[in-house]
Amino acid sequence: MTGKKSFSHRHVLAMDDLSRDDISLILDTADSLKSISTRAIKKVPTLRGRTVINLFFEPSTRTRMSFEIAAKRLSADTFNFSASTSSTSKGESLIDTVRTLAAMRPDAVVVRHAASGAPAFIAGCFDREFGGAVSVLNGGDGVHEHPSQSLLDLMTVREAKGAISGLKVAIIGDIAHSRVAHSNITGFTRMGAEVRICGPMTMLPPAAEELGAKVFTDPKEAVRGADVVMTLRIQKERLRGSLIPSLREYAACFAVTPELLALADPEVVVMHPGPLNRGVEIDSRVADGPFSLILDQVENGVAVRMALLFLLLGGKEGE
Ligand code: CP
Questions:
Q1: Residue 207: its pLDDT value, please?
Q2: Same structural domain for residues 266 and 228?
Q3: Which of 41, 106, 196, 305 satisfies CB 3.0 to 4.6 Å to 51 for a cystine?
Q4: In a domain, 164, yes or no
Q5: Are residues 140 and 30 in the same domain?
Q6: Helix, strand, coil: what percent of the chain each, to 5?
């Protein structure tokens, strides 16, 4: 494996921190690691002796499982922390929790938290108190960022289309409350794609144009000629009050249906980070249809997370 010495980051906290070269290195590394998951023996010794803790304060299926599988396929030891079954439920603070875990000497901690900035806060604490010995990977923080999701989305599009630069990517849904949207606006624009965001006015971020995306409220306009259509669920857990009249009306306007997709490029691909709310933001005929890459995204999630762990921890070999 070449290239690991070129990755100069200790943590992966946000797409905004990654250059175009960093992203290409991660995707190339993921490409080369992907075949491990289709072998009879799905394990290589690369990270033997390394320890990865999954520190999840919010629910997750895809991110937590694929980080765990990725670490195990590289032979790292993995441990899962769940807030509901930890001493957090007895009132232990975030800072005391992470200092306690760091004292157990993990090599990497994957953090998901409802508060934007929590992984960066934890990374700062580790750097100060443990001399940079622990890498932090952001597994999704509040409405801020979900970088490993964006990287797996970029990998999936590059695999399907051959390149990312020049593509038209329409992201439809609850943009304002979606960390996936924020990471993907950065990731796709940095790799040279045109990003269009579309949703009800109440679900578009303030000063949306300043994010570098074209802004639409009519999905027909957003999807017209698009090479990639990504639909997002409504982030009910982050909404204060109702931002739409009803789910039925939302679906009538914004669901990605075969009729809406007919306006896109004939070779369009459809993506969704999951979890899906069928019949709300996506029609089952689209989710399960020939243009859907939803399960490819999940498969590539393991490869991208293997690449991130490899690039962050592999470089410590021999120290
Ligand atoms: N896409 C995503 O983050 O899914 P989970 O919440 O299941 O991890």
A1: 80
A2: yes
A3: 106
A4: yes
A5: yes
A6: 45, 15, 40
Say if residue 103 is in the same domain as residue 241: no
129 or 30: whose pLDDT is higher?
30
- Residue 154 sits in the same domain as residue 141: no
Range with the lowest mean pLDDT among 2-6, 157-161, 255-259, 315-319?
315-319
The CATH number of the domain where 274 resides is what? 3.40.50.1370
What is the rounded distance in angstroms from the CA atom of residue 53 to the CA atom of residue 310?
A: 15
Q: Which atom of ligand 1 lies at the shortest distance from residue 146's CA?
A: 3
Residue 106 falls within a domain, yes or no? yes
Selected catalytic residue, list 34, 50, 112, 144: 112
Question: Does residue 257 have an active-site annotation?
Answer: no
Q: What is the pLDDT of residues 3-52, one digit of tens each?
A: 445 899 999 999 999 999 999 999 999 999 999 999 999 999 999 999 99
Q: Residue 319 Cα, ligand 1 centroid: separation in angstroms? A: 34
Is 62 designated active site? Answer: yes
Asked if 63 is an active-site residue, the reply is yes
* Predicted confidence (pLDDT) per residue in 203-224, tens digit: 999 887 888 999 999 999 999 9
Ligand 1 probe mutation, 61, 138, 148, 151, most atoms within 8 A of CB: 61
Q: What is the pTM (predicted TM-score) of this model?
A: 0.94
Domain that holds residue 29: 15-145+299-313
